[in-house]
Amino acid sequence: MDRLTSFEGFLTSVDRDGAIAETRALADASVSRRRLLGLAFVGAGATLVAGVGEGRAASGLSTSDVSILNYALVLEYLQASFYTEAERGGALTGKTAEAAHIVGSVERAHVTAFRQLLGSKAVKRPLFDFQGTTEQPQPFLKTAVAFEDLAVAAYKGQAPKLTSKAVLAAAVGIHSVEARHAAWMRGLFGITPAVNAFDQPATRQSVNRIVASTHFIVERPEMRRRRKPEFTG
Amino acid sequence: MADAAKHGPTAGDGVSRQTILGVAALGALAAVPLIGRLARLTDAYALPSKAQDARILQLVLQLEYTQVAFYEQALQNARLHGELREFARTALAHERAHLAVLKAALGTKAGPRPTFDFGSAVRDPDEFKQTAIKLEDIAIAGYNGQATNLTAGTLAAAAKIVSVEARHASWVRTLAGEVAAPEAVDKPMTAKQVADGLHAIGLKT
Predict the structure, then answer these.
(1) What does the mean pLDDT of chain B come to?
(2) Which residue range is the domain that position B58 belongs to?
(3) Topology of domain A63-231, per CATH?
């Protein structure tokens, strides 16, 4: 199977299975809205990866694309874990809880898609410590704004460097979704959703520096492998 | 497309990469066909080249012309209040900045401002919201749909614009009481789909 062609197909597959139409139809049914939205997005995530392959190595990808995709995957891990932890903690209510649920579902779908695309070359999920930011609404929103704005800048910085057109097509489709999320979280936080006429890119170096400064990543997968023998006695 | 093939891929040409939109030199390029009507746009693309960038920027120019006119007319006629007015004013300022950059990039090749008839979408606040959602979504899908056809420099410039359109779309969805970002990935549109969408909203010529 041509992994890249399949990945390109994920752009349309999300719509093809009706998940989005279902989501919109449910927008007025407030009682079951959250539960069913979740199901719809799980369905979308499954469809995202259904045609991609069975976890084989990403043979069709260039070395630089693999590197960029793994960098994006770490950012998606970071976001997905953050929203999952916030939702499970139960500290969020109302519109903020709804946003965390929907955005978290989408970030988890992005993680799944990248992992499937990268196959055996996908980096493992790091261990995170969000330093209490998922436990109260205001620190949660402030962190969410920072993550989403950072993701927008990070994708923007890497898109022109991608060599595979299929991966680029997918990446720009995710890039604009992250921008929608950024505006959503900014609005909930009470700040202007769209400040400037032009969003600036961020280099990989600066994104890594910002992520490191948060101390949210407490253990990289490489460290976990090295430590493993300590726990086998 | 033949022109694009003639010029050949120029992605490796770093001369204009640092200029605004990466294509400031486009005005000097000969043999760039002026697209008078969106309906004549084709979706057959060659390898990225500056000539092809210019053709794509004509499409994007129509998008920005439409957005500027839409927000201008709505602010004059739709009696927008509160945050909805703030949204429209902010979006208008951004779209004007996008338009200015595109016109500067295209120089004398930039097509003239079209005419529009947005009907009640620029008179009724609720209709305005729904049409703004459609228009911003078309802009996002239009930019995204051209990403693989652009040279790296122009893609980098376009990426600075598309995420701002996405912020507008999210914001106005919230103001309409809708889920701000309902999809996991934004689907692209072809040039033809964008043209059809703009005509449906009120682009006349």
Answers:
(1) 84
(2) 49-201
(3) Ferritin (1.20.1260)
